[in-house]
């Protein structure tokens, strides 16, 4: 198979979809890999490393797209890339279709086969290609939240872990999944007073067993959230419904009950956000303020730590990329249910129900194509 790796062009996105090591694995199996020049530089991988691993280096992104049967990316295509994607081309990347209708419609019109990292799902319900970035984003949410609690950045001016004689900050984590667990772990390690909320009692029992004593668990409901946001300093939104829009757990009216300088970090912003007032921001302009509450809503948080993120992501994606390259998307998806669940759009038709429902698009059962 001919595989193309274009350079990511989203604002401050420094990750790359394939490392030199991954390139070598594909090349030794007889595949051709085209990598756009400087695609890996932001993650610490020089063009020479790719060339040594057997990649063919190409200067222009358009040429990478025109040559490739499969495009491997990190982030969803942005507007200037829509026209580069060809009919029947396999695009393997994060799409987050449910959060952005123009992208969904553009990919339907392209006639491409869109296989989304975020909906590749195992039989046990786990999301193997979302987990590594959720781990990074969950840990980063506390790192960024602690920074924006500083007064020069319009926060409350509170140190997350406090000091002897002064209470630590109070951190509220919405969602006990991968993001929430990693956020709570880091916040607790920094000495904060942490509350983690979820609707799943089994999950809360597990978290109660494994978390340190400064992490408290609570069942999530609107009444409890309304009460807790009044006196918590940092609030992390980390809820996920695979492939669908995130539910709005914090509403606009709740902001007026929060203390000035409270910081909100919405890690779910890729899927539409679980905080009503959050809209996607960039690493260049990461925050905005509504009702004296600081909102941090960067849509590609792991892009700020590209070396760690690229290695974590490609460790997970490479086995699937190899399978797709070896077998072709159709046979690979017939034989592997994880990959079959990742199919969102095929040759002009939406085959993932949550995406179709999000925008009232026609839904076609994936079995039609397999």
TrEMBL record:
Q: What class of enzyme is it?
A: oxidoreductase
* SUPFAM superfamilies recorded: Formate/glycerate dehydrogenase catalytic domain-like, NAD(P)-binding Rossmann-fold domains
Q: Where is the Alanine dehydrogenase/pyridine nucleotide transhydrogenase NAD(H)-binding domain?
A: 149-297
Amino-acid positions noted as binding NAD(+) in the UniProt annotation, renumbered to this chain:
134, 198, 203, 220, 239-240, 267-270, 298-301
- Which residues are in the Alanine dehydrogenase/pyridine nucleotide transhydrogenase N-terminal domain? 4-137
Q: Which reaction does it catalyse?
A: L-alanine + NAD(+) + H2O = pyruvate + NH4(+) + NADH + H(+)
Q: Which domain of life is it from?
A: Bacteria
Stretches that traverse the bilayer: none
* Sorted UniProt keywords: NAD, Nucleotide-binding, Oxidoreductase
Q: Tell me one GO molecular function of this protein.
A: alanine dehydrogenase activity
Enzyme Commission number: 1.4.1.1
BP GO terms, sorted: L-alanine catabolic process
Query: What GO terms fall under cellular component here?
Result: plasma membrane
Q: Which residues bind substrate?
A: 15, 75
List the catalytic residues: 96, 270
Where, if anywhere, are coiled coils annotated? none
Family membership, please give it.
Belongs to the AlaDH/PNT family.
The name under which this protein is listed is Alanine dehydrogenase
Q: Give the organism the record lists.
A: Chryseosolibacter histidini
The UniProt gene name for this protein comes to ald
């Amino acid at each position: 198979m001919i595989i193309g790796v274009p350079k990511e062009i989203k604002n401050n996105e420094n990750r790359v979809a394939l490392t030199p090591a991954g390139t070598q694995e594909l090349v030794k199996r007889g595949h051709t890999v085209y990598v756009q020049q400087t695609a890996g530089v932001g993650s610490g991988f020089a063009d020479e490393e790719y060339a040594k691993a057997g990649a063919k280096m190409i200067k222009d992104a358009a040429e990478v797209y025109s040559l490739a049967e499969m495009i491997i990316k990190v982030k969803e295509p942005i507007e200037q890339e829509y026209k580069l994607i060809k009919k029947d081309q396999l695009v393997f990347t994060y799409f987050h279709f449910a959060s952005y209708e123009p992208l969904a419609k553009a990919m339907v019109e392209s006639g491409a086969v869109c296989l989304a990292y975020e909906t590749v799902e195992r039989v046990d319900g786990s999301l193997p290609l979302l987990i590594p970035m959720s781990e990074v984003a969950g840990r980063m949410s506390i790192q960024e939240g602690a920074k924006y609690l500083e007064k020069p950045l319009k926060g409350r001016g509170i140190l997350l872990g406090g000091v002897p004689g002064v209470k630590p900050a109070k951190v509220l984590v919405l969602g006990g999944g991968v993001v929430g667990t990693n956020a709570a772990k880091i916040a607790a390690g920094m000495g904060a007073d942490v509350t983690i909320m979820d609707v799943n009692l089994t999950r809360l029992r597990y978290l109660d067993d494994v978390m340190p004593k400064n992490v408290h668990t609570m069942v999530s409901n609107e009444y409890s959230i309304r009460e807790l946001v009044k006196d918590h300093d940092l609030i992390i939104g980390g809820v996920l419904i695979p492939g669908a829009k995130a539910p709005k757990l914090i509403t606009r009216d709740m902001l007026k009950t929060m203390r000035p300088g409270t910081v909100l970090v919405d890690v779910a912003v890729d899927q539409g956000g679980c905080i009503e007032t959050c809209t996607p921001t960039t690493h260049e302009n990461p925050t905005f303020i509504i009702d004296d509450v600081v909102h941090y809503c960067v849509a590609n948080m792991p892009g700020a730590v590209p070396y760690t993120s690229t290695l974590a992501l490609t460790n997970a994606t490479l086995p699937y990329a190899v399978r797709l390259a070896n077998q072709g998307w159709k046979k690979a998806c017939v034989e592997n249910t994880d990959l079959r669940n990742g199919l969102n759009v095929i040759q002009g038709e939406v085959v993932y129900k949550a995406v179709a429902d999000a925008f009232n698009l026609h839904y076609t059962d994936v079995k039609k194509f397999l």
